[in-house]
Design goal:
The protein is of the alpha+beta class. The chain contains three helices and twelve strands, in the order αβαβββββββαββββ. The strands form two sheets. Strands 1-2-3-4-7-8-9-12-11-10 form a ten-stranded antiparallel β-sheet, with helices on one face. A two-stranded antiparallel ribbon has the order 5-6. Strand 2 and strand 3 form a beta hairpin.
Length: 214
């Protein structure tokens, strides 16, 4: 009887573990990179955990982002400027994979906004054209530096180690969710508020684990 009860308890606990939700916890400030980079970041970051309780990444968002109303068909975040600095992300031992499924080595990367090109090679590769491109922190010391598309892609290939930039998909934020949620596709999405130059807070959300059809 005791063995039976114990077995049921173990199965129950394993079931709870299997269906655990992804989550995030607050962490301290970012301590790597240039002084300019550290100054541009919020003093608190987030550690994102997967449903299996493993740490996925640490994220620090920019203190403030520049926004402008502009026409960008299909974009969910059209107010962001090209190459806008959005923050920093750090991947622990084991690294990560971007939205293309490319391997990203452990380490810290700046995050900059870019729209997918509107050519035939990029049609249908993501539900939204808004992307975050990663650049190794050592190669992007000035958050205020404006980067044109070619330069941004060139620097981001240093994060992927391939001919393609390291890209993570931006998606709509969810008002009813916490800092992390899982989509029907199984993607793990981090979301948080970021402050615009008009001092108006806005939510941004991007996929930290999961890939699209390529």
């Amino acid at each position: 009887m005791r063995k039976s009860a114990l077995a049921c308890c173990v199965v129950f606990l394993l079931s709870l573990h299997a269906f655990a939700a992804p989550k995030a916890e607050k962490i301290g400030s970012f301590t790597e990179g240039s002084d300019k980079l550290k100054t541009a970041l919020s003093s608190e970051g987030y550690r994102v955990y997967l449903p299996n309780t493993l740490a996925c990444c640490d994220v620090w968002l920019a203190k403030k982002v520049a926004t402008t109303k502009k026409d960008a068909p299909g974009a969910y975040y059209p107010e962001f400027h090209e190459s806008e600095f959005l923050g920093v992300i750090t991947f622990p031992k084991g690294g990560a994979s971007d939205f293309r499924g490319q391997t990203i080595r452990p380490g810290s990367y700046t995050m900059r906004y870019e729209l997918l090109p509107t050519d035939g090679n990029h049609m249908g590769v993501a539900p939204y054209p808004d992307m975050v491109l990663l650049i190794p922190v050592a190669d992007d010391p000035d958050p205020d530096a404006g980067l044109d598309f070619a330069r941004l892609v060139e620097l981001s290939t240093k994060a992927s180690g391939t001919a393609h930039p390291a890209a993570f998909e931006l998606v709509p934020a969810r008002d009813s969710e916490g800092a992390v949620f899982q989509t029907d596709d199984g993607w793990i999405v981090f979301q948080a508020e970021i402050t615009s130059n008009s001092m108006k807070p806005m939510k941004v959300a991007f996929v930290v684990k999961g890939s699209g059809e390529q």
